[in-house]
Amino acid sequence: MITMAILLVAMALAALWTVTANLYLRATIALALTSVILTVIMFRLGAPTAAVFELSVCAGLISVIFISVISLTHRLTLQEFLSRRQNRFARFRYLPPLLIAAALAMYFARQPLGVSLPWRETVTDARSVMWDLRRFDLFGQVMVLLAGVFGVVTLFRGAKNRDGR
Amino acid sequence: MIYLFIFIPFLALIVINLLPQGEGEFAGWAALAVFSAQLAAAALAACGLIGLGGGWLDQLLHFRLLSDRTGLLLLFLAGLVGGTALLSGWRLRGASRSNFINLLLIALTGINGLALASDLFSLYVFIEVVAVSSFVLIALFRERSGLEGSFKYLMMSALASVLMLSAVACFLVAADGMSFAAVRAALAVPGNYLARAALGLFLCGLFIKGGLVPFHGWLPDAYMSAPAPVSVFLAGIATKAAGLFTLVRLVRLAPASADLSAVLLLVGTLSIVVGALAALGQRDMKRMLAYSSISQMGYIVAALGTGSALGNAAALFHFFNHAVLKSQLFVNAAAVEEQTGTRDMDRLGGLAARLPVTGTTSVIAILSTAGLPPLSGFWSKLLIVIALWTAGHQFYAAIALLASGLTLAYFLSLQRRVFFGRLRPELENVKEAGAALLLPALGLSALTVGVGLVFPFILGMFIK
Question: Which of A68, A147, A158 sits opposite B106 (nearest CB)?
């Protein structure tokens, strides 16, 4: 129970870091961390398939975000950097009331959702899910990461010279 | 044998990057060998001359691959269009060349994975492989327009991914797993509304990936802003594999229902009409082809909407023809752009005298796309109209027929503004494109005429 609470708090903190980080690279790392913690939580809850899916999606997502960020951003000036750092929490001013409202809604709607889960996990070992059941996906995930790596190489190579920086 | 479709492009990618690059000549020839081998192997397998067993690799890897004629069709087209795109980009040099080849091979692995996947989540993973490599390919030259086109595709693709992943999550609850068999069983249970909702979500994701109306906003910009060889690959196979092929797989899992049929017929017909009308008003050659692509994909979706065996066969046959014809037309656009430096049709004219091969092959592709006999496009459109009519959708059949007239109208306008009429003085010195663009154009034209003449053979080879 204590481990789970620690994991949940760690995940919430990592998620908060993701949305408040003022450097895209840090935000990407924080997102990866959030996803990894969520994966661990899913494993501990006895849902290894969902955990493997989470990890898979995260691998693809990180690649996509990396490429989009690299292709769309330019280096910030010192003034821009300082201004963004100063105002990074401003956009979250509506978050606390929203969180309180969500918590209250969850408290008052603690009834079961009525959705039965017909599919019970027969395999509970994560390695078994990864290597025996989802091996083809694993190959696909390697290819997504490779595409991301080649994307970074393609969009980065020579960029400094071109920009004169 | 079947595992080679997955591993050969992957191994080629590794070998190409391990060996010294030089001017990228070896990489080009190696990639061309991979595409040609895939084309030949898929054709031989479809004829039954080689088997598709997994052999000892199946014992070792347990990928649970699905080998059927529909998958073979995609493998064949991936080899054909990929090889065509590679030849179209043959003149690229240095880093652009090696990046182009690397990403093309990754995308090929993704498409092959899609063709052979037997599981909904695997389909999603390989769709992402194709999508990520496509984002980078569009922005290959890091020009502003390319980055903008790539960004639009990326944003819409992210939305599609959210929808498809939500569908996967719903199927995990509503079905006994993600395999096609489990999903089919879940969809067949009356009252399993969660499974039906998941099907709807996945369909929406695929409509976005395929660029169908009303989710088509990204497609013309992506096709237009991509470098010429990348446009060939995107229009010819990448978006078709990620959107339409997966749609074919998914629709086959669902039992025939009036709701599903209505959605497919509506989206298909909207795409046919909106795409054709939008194509009529374009000045940019590639943008017109992009809208034409939306219209032709609409025919495929409408045919799937009939839910009949004939409709399925017609959809797959048009999928084949559309991939060949659109690759052909984008190769022609690449030749025109390379030789004249523009795609603006109002600044072109009379090029048939200077680009006779490009002009002639363009006429063949245009007439076939518009559905004129005896070319390949005529037969697939005829089958689609018959399938719609016999399924009781006479209204949609009439729209499909009338839209063929629109197709002929905008394509004749293209042909007249680019190739016919008086040659502009500033185009006096234009010469015919090089062999790297002419050979695929001639090959694809021969295929269009040949398939038109022996269409029952092709229909039986890949579609039964």
Answer: A147
Tokens, residue A99: 């969180």
Q: Please list every residue in chain A whose beta carbon sits closer than 8 Å to the beta carbon of residue B168.
A: 53
CB B396 within 8 A of CB B269: yes
- The answer to whether position A2 is within a domain reads yes
Give SS3 for B263: helix
**A105 part of a folded domain:** no
pTM of the model: 0.86
Partner-chain contact A118 B102, CB within 8 Å = no
For A55, the domain range is 1-76+124-165
Q: Give the contacts of B20 (CB within 8 A, at least 6 positions apart).
A: none
Q: What is the ipTM of this complex?
A: 0.87
Token duo for residue B89: 């980009």
Least CB-CB distance to B132: which of A56, A64, A155?
Answer: A64
Residue of A nearest to B61 (CA): A135
Question: Smallest CA–CA separation between B55 and chain A, in Å?
Answer: 16
Decide if A136 is inside a domain. Answer: yes
Number of domains making up chain A: 1
Residue A118 located in a structural domain: no
* Residue matched to tokens 């490429």: A67
Residue type, A150: F
3-state secondary structure at position B445? helix
Which residue among A137, A146, A148 places its CB closest to the CB of B122?
A137
Q: How far is B156 from chain A (nearest CA, A)?
A: 12
Residue pLDDT tens, chain B, 464 long: 788 899 999 999 999 888 876 556 888 999 999 999 999 999 999 888 888 777 777 777 778 888 888 999 999 999 999 999 999 999 888 888 888 999 999 999 999 999 999 889 899 989 989 998 998 899 888 888 888 888 888 888 888 988 998 898 888 888 888 889 999 999 998 888 888 899 999 999 999 999 998 998 889 999 999 999 999 999 999 999 988 999 999 988 888 788 899 999 999 999 999 999 999 989 999 999 999 999 999 999 999 999 898 999 999 999 999 999 999 999 999 999 999 989 999 899 889 889 999 999 999 999 999 988 889 999 999 999 999 999 999 999 999 999 999 999 999 999 999 998 888 888 888 888 889 999 999 999 999 999 999 887 777 766 65
